[in-house]
C-alpha cells in the first residue's frame, strides 16, 4: 500500500475558504483520523483525496503516483482505487448483499467465477457470509454498514476512506463497530483515512490523529500526544475535557514559574521553563486534579486550594464536580462522593498544568 501525501491543498467554495494549504502525510498501513468540529473541512479533505472534489491548488500523491496536481493532473475517482464508505450506508436497496458487494467487480468486468470467490472472501471478512442473499431492508444498521465496507473492499483498494461511518449506529453498537473495524484494518493492513468529529472514536481507533480547525491543521500526533501534549488550547479543549484558567505570570525570585489567578490568594506553581510572560492560560485535566480528604493535604503538596462544590453528577465510574475556584469554575473528576455545597480540598500538581499564551 502506498503512502498518501497532500501538499499545500487549498479549496474554497465561493468566498468560503475551506482548506488553507493543507499538508499531511499518511503512512503505509496507518489508520489516520481527521478530527475536528463540524464544518472544519474534514469531508472536503477526504473527498479531495477520493477525487470527488477538485482542490483549487496543491498536490495529492498515492506513493509515487500523482493523482492531483494543481488541475494539470486530476485522476478520475474510479481510477484512484479508493474504497469509500460514507455516513449514509449507500447500499443499493434493490440488490442483495451478494450483488451489492459484487457490483464494483462487475463494473471492472471481472470474471463471474473470480467475482463469486472474492465476494465470499470479503463477506467472510466482514462476518456477513451467512446473510449473502438478504436485502438491505432485512439487515440492521450495523450490518448495512458492513455491507458498504465489504463493497469498498471488494476490489482491494489502495486506500480506504471512511467518512463518519458509524454515526448512524447507537452508542453500544458504535463501540463494537470501532473495535471490529480497527481489528479488521490491522489484519488487512489497508492504509485508511477516517473522518470523525467524535474525540472518543478518534482516540480509541487511530494510529495518528490530525486535529483540524477552520481548514487548518492544529496538530498531528498519536492519540497520547494529542491528549497529553496538546499543541494549543483549542486541541486541549476539543479532545477531552480540560479546565482553562486565564491568569497572569509572575516572575518567581527563586527561579520557579508562577501564575496568579483572580480570587486566589497564592499564585499557582507551574512547570519551570514554561517561558512565562504577562497574560497566560493554564490547562489542567479534571482527572489530574488530586482530591484530598477533609483532614487536609500532605505538607509537601503544592497548589492546594479549597473549592466549593457547585454541582455534581454521578457518572457510574466517577463523580464529576463543578466547583468555584476563585472567580472561575473548576471541573474535578474523582471517585469520592461529596455533597453539593460542601468544600473540597484539591491539589493542582504542577506537572498536570500546561501553560499557553493568551487567547
Ligand atoms: N459543495 C459545497 N458547496 C459549498 N460549500 C460547501 C460544500 N461542501 C462543503 N461546503 C462548506 O465547506 C465547509 C467544510 O465542510 P466539510 O463538509 O468539509 O466539513 P466537515 O468538517 O466534514 O463537517 P461535518 O463534520 O459537519 O461533516 C463548510 O463550511 C461547508 O458548508
UniProtKB/TrEMBL annotation:
Stretch forming the signal peptide: none
Task: Name any GO cellular component annotation.
Answer: ATP-binding cassette (ABC) transporter complex
Per UniProt, the keywords (alphabetical) are: ATP-binding, Nucleotide-binding, Transport
Keyword Kinase listed: no
Which named protein is this?
ABC-type quaternary amine transporter
Instruction: Give the enzyme class.
Output: translocase
- The species this protein was found in: Acrocarpospora macrocephala
From the Swiss-Prot or TrEMBL record, what is one GO molecular function term?
ABC-type quaternary ammonium compound transporting activity
- Keyword set includes Transport: yes
Report the superkingdom from the record. Answer: Bacteria
Tell me the PROSITE patterns matching this sequence.
Answer: ABC_TRANSPORTER_1, ABC_TRANSPORTER_2
